[in-house]
Design brief:
With 120 residues, the chain is α+β, with helices and mostly antiparallel strands. Helix content is 16%, strand content 18%.
Length: 120
């Protein structure tokens, strides 16, 4: 279970939290959901193998991290975790993104046909 590290003032997530965040992100209909999901903020694909724990450390531009869906009531429970691109961290429009996330889950997302290259 996630907890707040008071020394570094960062939230520490375990593997179960990582899986929950990944499962909460919108799926791409023509890609394996275990390998690819779409970032809710920029609408570009995320690769599961590109996880970065801390957005402040050096990472690739396609790396993903965990954000909270609802920061208005910041509970560290799995249903409140969301996978997003590390570079999109801080791009939220509302304190509670539940409504937007429901809308994005209903949308049929497709993998880009051309021009999508995973960059390091």
């Amino acid at each position: 279970m996630a907890f707040l590290d008071e020394k570094t003032n960062n939230i520490v997530f375990n593997d179960k939290d990582k899986m929950s965040a990944w499962d909460n992100a919108p799926e791409i209909s023509d890609a394996d959901p275990k390998k690819y999901r779409v970032c809710m903020y920029c609408q570009f694909p995320m690769d599961y193998s590109d996880y970065v724990m801390n957005v402040k450390t050096k990472h690739s531009k396609d790396a993903w991290t965990i954000d909270l869906i609802n920061i208005k009531k910041p509970k560290l429970v799995p249903k409140n975790f969301l996978a997003i691109h590390a570079n999109c961290f801080g791009n939220r429009q509302n304190e509670n993104e539940k409504r937007r996330l429901r809308k994005y889950r209903r949308t049929k997302w497709m993998m880009p046909k051309e021009g999508y290259k995973k960059s390091k």
